Amino acid sequence: MNYLVRRTVVRGLLINGGSGGRYISTVTAVGAVKPVEAWKELRNQNGASFGVFYWRRMMSSAAETAVAEKENKEKAVGKSAEKGVEYVKTSDGAVVSSYWGISRPKIVREDGTEWPWNCFMPWETYKSNTSIDLSKHHVPKTFLDKVAYRTVKLLRIPTDIFFQRRYGCRAMMLETVAAVPGMVGGMLLHLRSLRRFQQSGGWIKALLEEAENERMHLMTMVELVQPRWYERLLVLAVQGVFFNAYFVLYLLSPKLAHRITGYLEEEAIHSYTEFLKDIKDGKIENVPAPAIAIDYWRLPKDATLEDVITVIRADEAHHRDVNHFASDIHYQGKELREAPAPLGYH
């Protein structure tokens, strides 16, 4: 009788799991048999084979689950393949689906090596015109010109105090600001073109090219100078304030906005000239140029930091000309679309 009761208790524990308490309470009332004792008795009667059987049962269940999951994945991949989806593994192990038909073609340099950059392509690179006149200056004559000039000179004071002659960090901060005007101007011209159903005369693309070029300056400087945590916070604050202020200013007076940008570029030329002086004087080490700069500006393989700063300064001079030119168009009472945009002006 006790044997049958014990078998009933153990069977209830194994089969019904949590509901096994129902059998325990019944047995306790009849024979006061504890579950642990029942388990020991059954194991003693059946030997070690019972434990081995139960362990194998657990292992086989886990193996069956793993096999089922694998089969489900294979079925899903098979269904995707039937639909024309192909999975390609990249160099970093990521799986990219080509279901949408979007894939990067194999791009190589002139020497046959693989093109390493996704942020720009070989046909977007160029040789900078470093022979451009760096001494050009727009003399402020009108009231708005004087406001623009004084505003830029005022903004330079805290920059000089904070960075002093740390031109690497200064250039990094400068580029985070210099990349904003082109993006804001291009965005607002884009929206105006949509509202008025008018062409922009190429100025949307010209201003966005300027913003992209300034961003590439920043990507290059980040390779040379690692910003500190408080400098990153300063970038967030300055960019947030400057973007919104320039956005409102461009809505109110595009000619003033472009004039301010022109004077900002003049200050950038001055800063990079001082940067070059410190490099030539040995105050700043003339390290090898980053790979991204060599490919973007088509510099020689043995290019140095001096070469990089030289081409960046030339870019700033071109941006100076473009923005002063745009402001002059507005001063004549015309819209930018009425004058040809300086596309590809590097």
TrEMBL record:
Pfam families linked: AOX
Gene3D superfamilies named among the record's database cross-references: Alternative oxidase (1.20.1260.140)
GO molecular function terms attached to this record: alternative oxidase activity; metal ion binding; superoxide-generating NADPH oxidase activity; ubiquinol:oxygen oxidoreductase activity
Subunit-level organization: Homodimer; disulfide-linked.
Documented EC number(s): 1.10.3.11
Highest rank taxon of the organism: Eukaryota
Biological process annotations from GO: alternative respiration
Cofactor(s) needed by this chain: Fe cation
Transmembrane segments: 172-191, 233-252
Entry similarity comment: Belongs to the alternative oxidase family.
Keywords: Electron transport, Iron, Membrane, Metal-binding, Mitochondrion, Mitochondrion inner membrane, Oxidoreductase, Respiratory chain, Transit peptide, Transmembrane, Transmembrane helix, Transport
Swiss-Prot/TrEMBL catalytic activity: 2 a ubiquinol + O2 = 2 a ubiquinone + 2 H2O
A cellular component annotation (GO) from this entry: respiratory chain complex
Note describing how the cofactor binds: Binds 2 iron ions per subunit.
Membrane topology reported for the UniProt record: Multi-pass membrane protein
Protein name: Ubiquinol oxidase
Cellular compartment(s): Mitochondrion inner membrane
UniProt cross-references to InterPro entries, sorted A to Z: AOX, AOX_sf
